Every structure is written in C-alpha cells, then in structure tokens.
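Case study 2.
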Amino acid sequence: MVTIKTLLFTLLTFACFHDQKQDPVQKQVQDPILDQKQGQDPTQDFSDLKPENRSEIQQQESAVNLKNQDSPSSSKASLETSNLESRTSKTNHQPTSNDKNYHQAKSSSLKVSADSTKLESGSTVKDTGSGTIANSVVDHEKIKNSETETGKLDHSLWNNLLIKHVQTSGKVNYKGFKSEISSLDKYLAVLKVNPVQVSWSRNEKMAYWINAYNAFTVKLIVQNYPLESITKLHGGKPWDVKWIEIGSNTYSLNEMENDILRPEFNDARIHFAVNCAAVSCPPLLNKAWTADNLESNFEKQAKSFINNPVFNKIQPSSIEVSKIFDWYGSDFGNLINYLNRYSETAINKNATIKYKEYDWSLNE
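Prediction:
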C-alpha cells in the first residue's frame, strides 16, 4: 500500500516538474508584448513552430530589446546635436523677412527711398507696422512742404505721362491718358497746392504755367472723351470757363494764357508751347517743360512748327501761315522778320501773307 502511494506521489511530482520545464523559446513566442512589436496576434498559438523558426524569432526579440536599451542615449545624443545646430545657426544667421531687426532696418531704408521719390511717384509713405509701403493717396500738405522748400517744382509725373501718351509728332493718345487719370489727377493736385512762388526764377514760373495750361487742357478733354473737338464743349468757348484751382485762385485757360503767360513774360514763343488740343495747334511737346529745358525747347518748337508744311507754307515771295500769327500778331511784331529767324527758306520783305484755315479737330 505504501508503495502505491509513493508511486502516485512520484508521478504527480514529475508531471508538475515537467510543466515548469516548458520550452523557454515557446514561452517567449507567446509573449503578447513581443507579438505586438512583430505585428502579430498575441492570442495566436506558436506551439507548433519548428526549431529554426523559434531561433529566428528569438534573434528578432533580442534586436528589439537591444534597440530599447539604446533608446535613451540615442535621444540624448539627438538632443545634443539639435542644440549644437541651433547654436551654429545663430552664429551664422542671415536676416529674413520674419526678423524684427530686419524689418526695422528695411523700414528705415524704405522711408529714405520713398521720401526721395515721393513727388516723382505722386505717393505718400505710410507705415503699416510690418514695413513701409507707398500709399497712392496724395497728401497735399506733405507735397506742398517738400516741393517748395527747394524753390523748384517736380514735374516728373507729368513728364512720364507725356512720354507714354504723346508721340514725337504731337499726336495725343487720350485713351491712354484716360486709363491713367489717377496719375494725371495727382499731378494736377501738385500744381494746385504749389502755386508759383515769388522766389522762383523767371524760367521756373514760365515752365509752371505752360505745364499747367497743357495738363488742364488734357484733363478737360479726358473728362469728356470721346470727343470730336474741344470747341464742342461749353458752347464753343471752353477757354472762358473758370474751373482751374491753383492756390486760392480759380482760373480759366484764357486767363492763364492771356492774363499771365503773355503779358508777364512777353515771349511770343509761348504760342509754340501751349496746346489747345486741336490739329492746327502747335504740337504738344512729349516731355514736361522745366527751367532747365525751357530755352532749348522754345527754340526747337519754334523752328519745328514754322518749317512744318502742315502748318505753314513758306516761299520767298509768298507765305501761307497758321492763323496763330494773325490772332496774336502783336506778339510777333514784324511777322516776316520774325519768321526769318527760324525759317529754312528766306522770305522776301515784300512777300504776300495769307493765313490758313484752322482745323479744330482733336489732335489724336
């Protein structure tokens, strides 16, 4: 009896011991954590794996464990590398558009640049906080202060428009002017807040009034364009209408020409400079008049107009000339003598004089 009990106890003990001695590789394969790392189902049974497969999985697990052990030091090394790169970046830093110092430096530069070209562009400068930009709204007071402190007026706005929209022959592209009416208005605003100053030279004053006459004439046409003739406006007398505001005064085109330009400066060449927007009128110069170019342009315009057969036909014994020489005869004095100053053909003193019909069609 004792022997049977002893045998049973021995068998039970052996069975328990056998369970505890289960294959460690198989147990590791059934580890849910390892299974998840391998992308496998943790509930899957691997008891039937072959020895070579078990060995491969064991190697994979060892590699994973080694990676986990190395992770802290790798992160630390990565952080140190990042800090080193950051320090290097600051040492070799180049300004970008997001840098405050860069914006401040650029803002100062732009202000200097904008102030030097403000009158040429017709713009004022506005600080938006993120940089300095040009504002297209004209500040009359700023224009006045900066334009007149040197005693000279900047006509570059008008000059740019003339270059773009007037041919060397004097033909005017009024459609082009109309497309840039805001630029024309800016120039007229410059004239309005900068009337002629006593301190200006004679040439500066003459250039001012010639440019004003021509610019306001273009404005009158553009406002009513398309148009066949300037004589279609205001009952055929557009020159008598007082609508031009300069300083504290309001002028008509006739006042600018007949009350200022002609009597004050007493130079007949003014008639070759002002333009009435008609085909028979002396061509509009495709550049602005200035104190510096006034004399040379007077001579150029006078010679070109007098010797152009479209406007004047000159022969030694007879001439047929523009009606301008009739209307403003007192300005030219002895007409033949005056024409001979510029004519390429010498005119006899007793040559007959006729005047051409005036074409009031638009000079486009």
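Residues 140-355 form one domain.
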